[in-house]
Write a structure and sequence with these properties.
heterodimer, A: about 300 residues, alpha/beta, Rossmann fold, Alpha-Beta Plaits, 2 domains, six-stranded mixed β-sheet, four-stranded antiparallel β-sheet, elongated, B: about 280 residues, mainly alpha, about 0% strand
Chain lengths: ~300, ~280
């Protein structure tokens, strides 16, 4: 379990994480979603105590990470940034980490086999491809058989087989009752893996919701309409939170209104409708809409302040 | 080459240990021995410590006949025996800086501090491992240097000194102690600066730029200050004769140890306080 309370981190004048509060529950896969640069990696560094929060607090399994007697058994982490000495072999890298906790050598070999790095285990990691580096990072995260697994963009650089493999692994780990916290900037990836979502943008919490709720909520307010009087319909529906996208000839995609609202407004104005269909927005669109709103809101504030 | 295990299940770890200092020592030792550049630096340092005195001894004995009485008087057997120390200190210093700065440049420091989040045990373990390794290599190196250079000089029956003469054993072993302390000092600088080029430049500045710069000061200031510089104080550990305006071997050694302790203390405070 990971608990963050009002977690905030400034780097100089830039606020990277802004008052985040959330709880990551055991037994499910929690996706940590946000555009690049939204503060996901910083949050993970704060959880591991690599960076100290400006204020606020975060604990893992009830304690600050650094206060655990055996941290590798509590949290296994894959960080986004490379964290391996390029001159050392994968085997020796894992061995040195294992030795700090008295984890036996055969565990190192076991993990190397699990991620399929057996034949390159004695090669210097500087020669590794992105995907091999990623597998080594996953082996490192699982080395201590941790209660909480935290992976930053784990599918980066993996081939389709590897992506499939990691999805199953994460679900399996959650099924064993572990806490699984996985970041991604791809909503579609999270939809396949995660049960719960924590969405952030510009360091702030945007949503803390189950994947099902997120999809339902996000797809409510897009409606496809077909009408011979599209121009007049546009004028009738126009409002501050409403936007339009031209679909095929004679059709219009209305964003920001429900099908009921569009139908009633059309009836009042006496506009004939040939079609009125609520759209299932793709997850990627839903996510983009959500984060775009947040970004626009923030930049409006900045302009107002300037 | 990249075959994944068919099952995506994580095997359980039968027994779980906790962080202990002797385990961190072992871990840092594994890191020290598992990077090729480290082994090269140690090997080069070891060979240079021995090679220089041998070359110096050969050159001195072959030119002895044509040297002026003044030049002959300036040659001292221990200067020859320990000629390699001045060169070896550079190899050891570069390695000391690298042991920690390379962790930052490659990012492996994040793995290190994730495994040992209290951080300080890592610094102590690095210092202890490196001190032991450099001392264990430097002692045989200076002993071989001493006896090899004396053997070469003995063929011409010049510049003979006994290992049991007053101060000789202390100077020779002192050469090894000095090399070890230089390594510790450099490691601390590496931990403070966290950058390879910057760490080596800082070390070179303190050891090779600062001392000659002192000659721009008025003579009396130079005499008063120079002896307390890390390089000058440290050098007394392996100096046989006590020259004017220098510290005694024990005092100089203690001053240098104090510099090392201060540098490590600063490194420790920064290590705990800074973000990685």
């Amino acid at each position: 379990m990971i608990e963050a309370r009002d977690l905030t981190k400034d780097y100089g004048a830039k606020r990277a994480v802004d008052g985040l509060s959330f709880t990551v529950q055991p037994g499910i896969v929690t996706g940590f979603l946000g555009p690049n640069g939204s503060g996901k990696s910083t949050t993970m560094r704060l959880i591991l105590g690599l960076d100290a929060p400006t204020h606020g607090d975060v604990t893992v399994n009830g304690r600050h990470y650094r206060d655990h007697a055996a941290p590798l058994h509590e949290v296994g982490a894959l960080l986004e940034a490379r964290s391996v000495h390029t001159g050392r072999s994968a085997y020796n890298h894992l061995l040195a980490l294992a030795e700090t906790h008295g984890i036996p050598k055969r565990r190192v070999t076991e993990l190397i086999d699990l991620v399929g790095l057996h034949e390159v285990a004695r090669k210097r990691t500087g020669q590794f491809s992105l995907g091999m580096g990623q597998r080594l990072g996953i082996a490192q995260a699982l080395l201590g058989d941790p209660k909480t697994v935290m992976l930053d963009e784990p599918v980066n650089g993996l081939d389709p087989e590897g992506i499939h493999w990691i999805r199953n692994l994460l679900k399996g780990l959650a099924g064993e009752g572990r806490t699984v916290f996985v970041s991604s900037h791809l909503m579609s990836e999270m939809a396949l893996t995660a049960d719960h979502l924590i969405v952030i943008g510009r360091g702030k919490l945007i949503a803390d919701t189950s994947v099902d709720d997120f999809v339902a909520r996000a797809s409510q307010k897009v409606v496809l309409v077909r009408s011979p009087e599209l121009q007049r319909l546009r004028e009738t529906l126009a409002g501050p939170s409403v936007s339009f996208e031209s679909a095929e000839r004679g059709a219009l995609e209305v964003h920001g209104l429900t099908a009921e609202q569009v139908g009633e407004a059309a009836a009042e104005a006496g506009i004939a409708l040939h079609e009125l269909t609520p759209q299932q927005a793709s997850l990627e669109e839903a996510f983009m809409n959500l984060t775009r709103d947040e970004l626009e809101f923030a930049s409006d504030l900045e302009e107002a302040a300037a | 080459m990249t075959t994944l295990a068919p099952t995506a299940r994580l095997p359980r770890l039968e027994h779980s240990g906790r962080i202990a200092f002797h385990r961190v020592l072992l871990s840092e030792w594994t890191k020290l021995r598992s990077v090729r550049s480290t082994l090269w630096s140690l090997g080069v340092g070891f060979l240079l410590t021995i090679a220089f005195p041998i070359i110096f001894a050969f050159v001195t004995s072959s030119h002895w006949g044509s040297m002026s009485p003044q030049d002959r008087a300036d040659r001292h057997p221990l200067d020859i025996a320990l000629a390699g120390v001045n060169v070896a200190q550079l190899a050891i210093a570069v390695l000391g800086v690298l042991l920690i700065s390379a962790e930052y440049s490659t990012g492996s420091i994040r793995s290190t501090f994730t495994a040992v989040p209290k951080r300080l045990p890592v610094l102590w373990a690095k210092v202890i491992d490196f001190a032991v390794v450099s001392f264990v290599l430097a002692v045989p190196a200076v002993l071989v240097s001493f006896f090899a250079s004396q053997t070469i000089l003995a063929k011409h029956d010049i510049l003979q000194i006994s290992f049991s003469a007053p101060g000789v054993a202390r100077s020779v072993i002192g050469g090894a102690v000095y090399v070890m302390l230089v390594g510790i000092f450099a490691l601390a600088i590496g931990a403070i600066v966290r950058n390879t080029a910057g760490g080596i430049a800082t070390f070179a500045g303190i050891f090779f730029v600062l001392p000659p710069l002192m000659f721009t000061l008025p003579q009396s200031w130079n005499n008063a200050i120079s002896q307390y510089l890390p390089s000058e104080a440290g050098r007394q550990i392996f100096a046989l004769d006590h020259a004017a305006h220098t510290l005694r071997p024990l005092t100089g050694g203690l001053v240098f140890v104090a510099y090392c302790a201060a540098a490590i203390a600063i490194a420790a405070v920064l290590l705990v306080r800074r973000d990685v």
